[in-house]
Amino acid sequence: MSIGLGMILIPIGVVFIVLSIFSFQKNEKPNGYGLLIAGTVILSICILLLLGMYDPYRNHI
Asked: What is the reported pTM?
């Protein structure tokens, strides 16, 4: 279950990072920084889910 959630979060994180790059090109720095931070956090959570370091369903048997 966590691997599937990690796979779903990959495109969302990439879209946020790409949108932040476009925001930096238009000189909208507050929007760019916010999207960059959001994309980085989503991709970090995705890595934890894919590697199995974080499993939200571990205690639910």
From this structure: 0.81
